Please model this.
Amino acid sequence: MHKVVTINLNGQAYQFDEDAFDALRVYLDRAETQLKANPDRSEILADLEQAIADKCRRYLSAHKTVIAAAEIAQVLQEMGPVEAAPDPSQEGAAGGPTGAAADGERPRSPNAPRRLYRIEDGMMIGGVCTGIAAFFGIDVTIVRVAFALVAAIELVSSHVGIVIIAYIVMMLVVPLAGTSEEQAAAHGVQFNAQEVIDRAKRNIAEFNDRGWSHQRREWRRQQRAWSRQFRQTMRAKRWGSIGFVPPAADYGTRVAAGVMTSVLAVANLILFLVFLYALASMLSTGAIYSWRVPPDVPLWVATFGLFFTYYVVAWPLHMARRASFYAVGGSMYGWDAGGYGLVSAGLFALFVWLGYQHVPEVRQFVDRLPEIWENVRRAIAQSR
Amino acid sequence: MSITDRFAAIRKGLLEYLILRIVSADKVYVADILQRLSGTEFATQEGTLYPLLSKMRRDGLVDYEWQESDSGPPRKYYRLTAKGKSQLTELNEYWKDINATISQLGR
Model:
C-alpha cells in the first residue's frame, strides 16, 4: 500500500504513487536548475510537464488511475535529461553524454561529493563494510573478507584486535546514510533525477531477478525505516515540544557528535567504575579513600548518599551524551541503545580484566569480593 | 571510443540545422519532430528538444502558434520565420560546401 499524491501537471490533475512523485519532483527540480539562466524557463518547464502528462496518460485507464514508480521511471527515461540549449558563448565546452547511463552499475561522477557513511542497505553488523565498499566502489564481499581475514590474523598473532576496535569506533563515529542525498554521497554519485531513476530501474530489475525473497527483505527494510520514524516521533515527544525533532546535522557535526558520544560513554563508564570502587571500599572498610563514614550514620544512609552523589555528578554527563546521541541520529532507547549498552558492557569487562591483570589492588579487591559480600550481608543483618 | 561517441558533439551541433529543415518542410509540433528524428542517428528526447526550440525561437529562427488538437490539450505548431528561412538557405549552402570539400580530399 502506498500513499498517493495528486499533482497538477500543466493544468491537469494526475495521481502519483509517492515514490513516483519523488522521482518526478527530482526530475523537474533538476530541470529547473539546468534552465536557471534561461529566460524561457517557465515556458519550457510547462512544455516538459505537458509532455510528461501526455506520456503518463497512456498508462492510465478507467481502472487504473495512479501512476506507479516504474511507469514514471520509464516516462522520464524517454524524456531524457534536460540540458540547457547550447549557448553560443561557450560552444563546444561540453559534449556531454546524451544517452541514458548504463544499466546496473552506478556511474561515478568525478565531481560529486563523496563521503564515508554507514549504509543500512545490506548491512550485517553496523553497515561499516557496506559503506566502505560504496566509498571505494568495490564489492562489499571483498571488504568483509578482508576485514575478517586481517582481524583473524591479528587475533592469532598478537592477541589484539585493532581491526575490531577500528570497526567499533567507525560504527560509533561514522554517520548512517539516511536521506537520498546522503546515500548518493555515500556512493559518490551526483544526486539527481538520473540517479533516482536508475535506482528505481535497478529495484525493478532486482525484483525480477530475485523475486520474493528480495521483496521480503525490502519489506523488512521498510519496517526498519518505519520504526525509526516512530522512534523519532517518540524522541520529539520526550524533548517536550510536540513535533520538534532536532534538525538533521551536517556531516562534520555528526562525526563530531559520534566522537563525543564515545568519549562521553567512556567518561561515564570511568565515573561508574569510580563509583563502584567507592561503594565497595565503603562497604568493606567503612571508608571512602581517606574519608571515614561517621559512626552515627547507618550504612544504608551512607549507601543511599553515595548513589545520590553519583547521580548528581553523572547527570550532566548523561545529558550531554544524550544530546550528542540525538545529533548522531540515534536514540537512547531500542536497538541503538542496545548496541551502545553492549559496547559499554564490553568496555567495562575489558577495564576490569585489564585491572585484574595489571593492577595488584584491583586483583586483591576482586579476589576479596566474596569476603566483602559476606561482610555486607552481616552488616545488613546487624542493622535490622 | 566508438564512432557514435566521437561524433556526439558533431551530431549535437547539427541538430539545430536538422530541425530547421524539418520545420521548413511542414508545420510540425514537437512530437512530429521527435518522430522524424527517431530511428535516425539524430534521435532526440524532449529534455533536449524543448530547450533547443525555445532558444531557436529567441534567436528568431522559428515561431509557434497554438492549435487545438482532437486528442488532448492544444499544441504548439512550429514554423520558420523569414530569418529562419534565410538561415536555412545559408546552412544548406554551407553543408554542400563541406560535403564537396570532404569528397575532394582523398577518396
Q: What stands out?
A: The longest helix of chain B spans residues 82-104. The mean pLDDT of chain B is 88. The longest strand of chain B covers residues 62-67.
